[in-house]
Design brief:
globular, mainly alpha, 13 helices, about 5% strand, two-stranded antiparallel sheet, single chain
C-alpha cells in the first residue's frame, strides 16, 4: 500500500513538474530577480550592489509620491464607481430586459478588445475641439473642458475611461452570479409583497457578497497597475507635464526612458507591498461584512 502511495506521489510530481517549472520561470523568478535588482545600480549589463540607496531615492522622490497619489485616486475612485454602475446594469439586465445574453455579449466586447485600440478611439471622443463628448455637452449648453490638454483634467479623463473599461468584466461575472441565485427566493418574496428594492437589498445583494469580494480584489489590483489606458489616451505620455503619472508609469519611465533599472525595481517592490497590504485590509473588511 505504501509503495503504491509513493508511486502515485511520484506520478503526480511528474505531471505537476512542467507547470511548476513554468510558474517558477515566469512568476517566481522575475519577482526574486526584481528584488535583487532593487538593491543594485547601474545598467542592466553592469549592475553593482548599492544596498538601500534605490529605496531612499524612490521614497524621497516627489514624482513617485505624486504617482502614488494619482494611483490611489484612480483606484479608490474607479473601483467603487465602476462596481456600483456594474451592479445596476447587471441587475437591470437580469431582472427587466429580455434577451439579456445578447446585451451581456455586447458589454463584454470591450474586455476582449485591445486597450490601446479603445484608447485611440477615446482620444477622439475626448478631443477638446471636435470630440463627441464635448459635442454632446455643447448640445445641452454645458461646459466643454479640454479633457486631454488641460493638466487639471487629465486624471478625470483617465478615471472616466477607467470606469468604462471596468464595466465589461464586472457585468459578465455579476450576471453569472445572479443566475446562480435560486429563483424561489424571489417567488416567495413576491408572495409576501416585497418590492424590487427590498428583494435586491435583502436577497440579491447578500448572496452577491462572495462575487463582489472577488471583483473588488481583482479590480483594485488592476487599478493599482494602471498603465495601458494612460499610454493610449495621451499618445505615450503620462498626461500633460506628468499630471497623469501613475506608479507603473513611473516604473516604466525609470526603467525604459531614464535607464535606471535599480530604481525602477525598488519602486516595483514598494508598489507590490502596497498592493499586498491594501488587498489584505480589503479582504479583512469584506470578511467582516460577509459574516453579518
Amino acid at each position: 500500500m505504501k509503495n503504491k502511495r509513493r508511486k502515485n506521489q511520484w506520478s503526480a510530481w511528474w505531471f505537476l513538474g512542467p507547470a511548476l517549472l513554468g510558474i517558477f520561470l515566469f512568476s517566481v523568478f522575475p519577482i526574486l530577480r526584481a528584488l535583487i535588482m532593487s538593491f543594485q545600480s547601474g545598467s542592466l549589463i553592469s549592475m553593482h550592489w548599492t544596498g538601500l540607496s534605490n529605496y531612499k531615492y524612490v521614497i524621497q522622490d516627489p514624482y513617485f509620491a505624486k504617482a502614488l497619489q494619482n494611483t490611489a485616486l484612480y483606484a479608490f475612485t474607479v473601483v467603487p464607481i465602476g462596481m456600483v454602475i456594474s451592479i445596476a446594469i447587471a441587475w437591470n439586465l437580469f431582472n427587466r430586459i429580455k434577451h439579456s445574453k445578447f446585451f451581456e455579449a455586447l458589454f463584454f466586447m470591450p474586455y476582449v478588445t485591445s486597450t490601446i485600440a479603445i484608447g485611440i478611439v477615446f482620444r477622439y471622443i475626448f478631443n477638446g475641439q471636435y470630440g463627441l463628448l464635448n459635442y454632446i455637452l455643447r448640445f445641452f449648453h454645458l461646459g466643454t473642458p479640454n479633457w486631454l490638454d488641460n493638466p487639471s483634467m487629465n486624471m478625470i479623463t483617465v478615471i472616466i475611461f477607467g470606469v468604462w473599461l471596468s464595466l465589461a468584466f464586472n457585468i459578465v461575472i455579476l450576471m453569472s452570479a445572479l443566475r446562480g441565485i435560486d429563483p424561489q427566493h424571489y417567488t416567495i418574496a413576491k408572495m409576501y409583497g416585497a418590492s424590487d428594492s427590498e428583494m435586491f437589498f435583502r436577497i440579491t445583494l447578500p448572496q452577491l457578497i462572495p462575487t463582489l469580494a472577488f471583483l473588488l480584489t481583482v479590480n483594485l489590483i488592476s487599478a493599482f497597475k494602471v498603465y495601458t489606458s494612460i499610454y493610449a489616451l495621451f499618445n505615450g505620455q503620462p498626461g500633460i507635464a506628468g499630471s497623469a503619472m501613475t506608479a507603473v508609469y513611473y516604473i516604466f519611465n525609470k526603467f525604459q526612458t531614464v535607464g535606471t533599472p535599480g530604481v525602477a525595481m525598488a519602486a516595483t517592490v514598494l508598489l507590490f507591498l502596497i498592493i499586498l497590504v491594501v488587498s489584505f485590509l480589503q479582504n479583512k473588511l469584506l470578511n467582516k461584512v460577509g459574516r453579518r
